[in-house]
């Protein structure tokens, strides 16, 4: 499945992933963030255009002191550019079918495309709860030192797709 940018044709009102914050974001704030160019929301929808999964991408930077030492030692800047997967959610009726992993792979492909145009050193995620932390950790994300965010070097994603 390939995601598309959220549009008016996509039905969001029945989206339920089990995390109120993620449901509310999709229903009330995603379009505003797109219009304000704060984030882009990518969705996967069924044949009726009901959203069954989504993720958001935006850019930012992190302080080098927040990165684990073994990953920061070769960097000479005080801040490094990153792409943030701010939200990622799958409708509860589709959970357990690896759709979350498919969305993450889709995001990684887009991030690799972006990295050919704009420098970014890593991907950051904001896990909303312990199951999300475990999901990202299983996929190689590393906790940052000063926040609850998790970090995956872009090199890891490049290596993933070169195999």
Automatic annotation (TrEMBL):
Keyword Repressor tagged: yes
SUPFAM superfamilies documented for this protein: Acyl-CoA N-acyltransferases (Nat) (SSF55729)
Superkingdom of this protein's organism: Bacteria
Catalytic activity: glycyl-tRNA(Gly) + acetyl-CoA = N-acetylglycyl-tRNA(Gly) + CoA + H(+)
Transmembrane segments: none
Key words, A-Z: Acyltransferase, Repressor, Toxin-antitoxin system, Transferase
Domain N-acetyltransferase as annotated: residue spans: 1-155
InterPro entries cross-referenced by the UniProt entry: Acyl_CoA_acyltransferase (IPR016181), GNAT_dom (IPR000182)
Name under which the protein is recorded: GNAT family N-acetyltransferase
Origin species: Sphingobacterium hotanense
């Amino acid at each position: 499945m390939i995601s598309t940018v959220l549009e008016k044709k996509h039905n969001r009102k029945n989206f339920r992933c089990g995390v109120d914050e993620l449901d509310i974001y999709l229903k009330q704030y995603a379009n505003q963030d797109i219009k304000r160019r704060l984030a882009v929301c990518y969705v996967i929808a069924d044949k009726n255009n009901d959203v069954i999964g989504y993720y958001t991408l935006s850019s930012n930077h992190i302080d080098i002191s927040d990165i684990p030492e073994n990953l920061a030692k070769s960097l000479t800047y005080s801040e490094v550019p990153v792409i943030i997967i701010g939200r990622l959610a799958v409708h509860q009726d589709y959970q357990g079918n690896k759709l979350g992993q498919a969305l993450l792979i889709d995001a990684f492909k887009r991030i690799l495309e972006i990295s050919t145009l704009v420098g970014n050193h890593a991907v950051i995620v904001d896990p909303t709860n312990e199951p999300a932390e475990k999901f990202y950790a299983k996929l190689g994300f590393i906790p940052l030192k000063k926040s609850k965010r998790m970090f995956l070097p872009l090199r890891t994603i490049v290596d993933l797709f070169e195999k």
